[in-house]
Fold aspartate transaminase.
Amino acid sequence: MIKAENIFNKMQQVTMNWRYIYVYILIKCSSKNYSGGCDGDDKPKSAFSVIKPAPPVEIFHMIKLFQDDKDPKKVNLSVGAYRTDEGKPYVLPIIKKCEKELVNDPKLNHEYLPILGDPQYRKLAMELLLGKDNCAIIEERVLPIQTISGTGAVRVGCDFLAKCMKRRVAYCSNPTWENHFGICRTAGFKKVKGYTYWNPKKRNLAICKLLSELAEAPEGSVVILHASAHNPTGTDPSRKQWKQIAEVMKSRNLFPFFDTAYQGFASGDIDRDAWPVRYFIKEGFELLAAQSFSKNMGLYCERAGCLVLVLNDKKHIPNVASQLTLLVRQNYSNPPAHGIRLVTKVLGCEENRCEWASTVKKMSSRIKEMRKALSEKLVELETPGKWDHIVKQIGMFSFTGLKPQHAEKLINDKHIYMLKSGRINVCALTTKNVEYVAQSINEVVKADPLDDGEDCDEDGDDDDADDDCDE
Ligand SMILES: Cc1ncc(COP(=O)(O)O)c(C=O)c1O
């Protein structure tokens, strides 16, 4: 009996040992597959190996090249941010003052904001864009929602139009801020098209082409319009041209989506720059508008923005708000507070608001002075071509007409960083670097002249009156 028990125990022990050996072999074999850990040398194929490299985002690539450049003459004309005459980033004095007040405000905490944002901020942002006495505000048919800056407003707006309003086609100006096309595609529009905006020969607005292309757009298409200080061309439609655009859009039942990233930077006057949006509302359009405080309050990294929806009947607002709530909830849940608290402090106090408006005017005047300085220097150096468009253009940017090969030479040989489209940020010019920039442009253009067809307008005749399209 005892013997049989012993034999049984022995057998059990052997089985256990085999089990241990089996598990040991299993672990050894499987761990071989993961030997790529910290000190593994024969790495297996990564699950991420399917990922192909995406092209770099040009502006951020330029920032990196600029930062790595050790040349003391280097100039960064690529990034769309305001610079002082010392070439430094600018914190607006009113923002500095409000920031100190925020830090010392014992009532503030870091609780979540509501999904659609802070109510006071939303109201102030809406009033800034539309004007307090706007009929749509009085009739309570405007819905402003806080967004992650201008980009977030464009994205939430496009998501809403494509997913909730089932719009199929979106039109972006050609050229435009490079993110518009990408956002529209990602948002889910079935077709994303460009409408001609620029006449490269005359370096002005191709109004006739723009109108005729919009006149052929499928009914109900969404059209993204830059409210002021068009990026990258620095060229806005005149009021007469805006009226023509509104007329065509009305006749085709096109849906306007205004991108307002530069309110105040075009004319130096906050209200004046909002005129196109206000005009479209007056004309009875329902519309969307994306607002940003990155540029006009210098709040770039604080991501203060707003999406303003104007409806023709306030009864739809609760439904619209409920869908937007879901979109935002599933995307980033709720927006950040610091930047919008600053905006609220500036816009919510008359004294602060006046100081801010006068700072915007000063910033816009400095840009105008730099436009003049660059254009005059190029003329003085007898740089081939015409350079008056630099002065005629408005806002932060100048679409210089320089070609990709000029941009490449300026970057590689002169340490002047700019976009290959020929766009430069005029704010980055200073009284100290403008001469160097002009001389460098002069050199590259003399070596490789521009094909300046300045006496040929978009229709092929040499009529200089390009402001109208009176067919
Ligand atoms: C036309 C346009 N829209 C939107 C934006 C977005 O700006 P942000 O997201 O910094 O507010 C920019 C920024 O350069 C722009 O030029």
